[in-house]
Amino acid sequence: MAARVALVGFGTGGAVFHAPLIASVPGLRLEAVVTGNPERAEAARGRYPGTRVLDSADRLWETPEDYDLVVITAPNRHHVPLARTALTSGLPVVLDKPVAASADEARSLAALAAVRGLPVIPFHNRRWDGDFRTVRRLVEGGALGTVLRFESRFERWRPEVRPGWKESTDPLDAGGILFDLGTHLIDQAITLFGRPHRVYAEIGTRRPGAAVPDDVFLALTHDGDVRSHLWMSATAAQFGPRFRVLGSSAAYTVSGMDVQEQALREGRTPKDAGWGRFPPETYGRVGTPTAGRPEPTEPGAYQEFYAAVARTLRGEAPPPVDLADAIAGLEVIEAAAQ
User: Which residues of 191-220 are buried (b: 16+ CB within 10 A; e: fewer)?
Assistant: First the structure.
């Protein structure tokens, strides 16, 4: 029997990412969508006609026995309160990034999850980007030798500030690019090399009218003196490589972004043929200045996150992302701010 999923939030996160992925995975059923926005509610009914559409999360807690999982993709300030209510209602949680506005909040959530014996699973979907899956294969397989430096970028050209809570200076909103894109970049570095023991940061607010950081560089030092250099920016008029990984025997460089987000925005899903595949002209290269070759990019596989969640709910496997990793990422963000 498929696990019944309640999705809280049907903005970009819910409508573009979570709902199509949940609906594409055997073993999960999108049972309910929660949104107080009438237009979004109508869109949810149109795309998922067999799914309940509720106007408030309070409706979920009235009958928690109707659900097996709550997915929370509301604005950041609501992450922890909603997750705590779900846990106290006896329901496991998938929680969008950042899981909390502070490491202390995330630790308190982890303590409650432990008491209730229920998982809180961070939605760190970028571990299933095709280019990152390729980096991970090369690094873990030793194709580059000993990794010396890992370079990673999420760069955008958005010179105009877009109004919204992501531009808020209220700490509860966890606004700014460090919490937004930085969460993904830091998590990828932690996935490869573990929690860093030193953090250096350059944090800038560059755009006219901006009040929160929009241009950030981080340098992390991991065990073995591996260095992660991470760039995130809304002010990049030209983009650097997505990844450049320098090893003792070879390097890997690739440009461009994973194809899955654009495909989801266009209405495609992992059920479609060719999902997540990269054309050969976008492949990166492995080698040295005198000897190199194209390296096929692994297919992107966001659906594997939710397939793994389904296995966790059945008691067959641990969560695909450990909440401790999200806490470590928040600790890096706080160290950068200091």
Answer: bbbebbeebebebeeebeebebbbbbbbbb
pLDDT tens digits, one per residue of 181-191: 999 999 999 99
Classify burial at 149, counting beta carbons within 10 Å of its beta carbon; exposed 0-12, middle 13-18, buried 19 or more. Answer: middle
Q: What type of residue is 157?
A: W
pTM passes above 0.85: yes
Query: Do the Cβ atoms of 338 and 102 come closer than 8 Å?
Result: no
CB 261 within 8 A of CB 271: no
CB 40 within 8 A of CB 34: no
Question: Which residues make beta-bridge pairs with 228?
Answer: 150, 220
Q: What value does the mean pLDDT take over residues 34-62?
A: 96
Residue in the block written with tokens 């294969």: 137
Tell me the per-residue pLDDT of 152-171, one tens digit each, with 9 for 90 and over.
Answer: 999 999 999 998 989 999 99
Using alpha carbons, select from 72, 135, 71 the residue that is nearest to residue 300: 135
